[in-house]
Amino acid sequence: KNIVNVAHLCDWEICGAATQDKLYFFKNLSATPKETFYIAPSDYFKIYKNIIFLFHSHCLGSAAPSEADLKIAQESSLGSLIYSVPEKNFSFYDPKREKLIYFCL
User: Rounded to a whole number, what is the largest CA-CA distance in the chain?
Assistant: First the structure.
């Protein structure tokens, strides 16, 4: 069985938001984009009222939300979809119900 190092497959975390009609991808402005993401508040606030949930990827770890991910979800009251590049699975956290599910497509 071949072992594949997936770290090189993801040079930065993607980040964005989903509305009823569209997915918006934001530029990751983080100083350490392979480990975290930061978006310009102006990009976020342009569509804030229409956002259904936020999404981002994890390049190096599991799909489990970090403490920062949970804080963002709680403060925004928006669901958070996370994709793990190494594990090829997703998690979705609903801050209103404080529920976390994992799934694969």
Answer: 48
pLDDT of residue 11: 85
- 0.85 exceeded by pTM: yes
**Beta pairing, strands 23-26 & 51-58:** unpaired
Tokens of 89: 């699975």
CA distance 13 to 78: 19
Integer Rg of the chain from CA: 14
Q: Give the DSSP letter string of 44-80.
A: HHHHGGGEEEEEEEESSS-SSPPHHHHHHHHHHT-EE
**Angle (nearest 5°) at CA 79 between 73 and 83:** 95
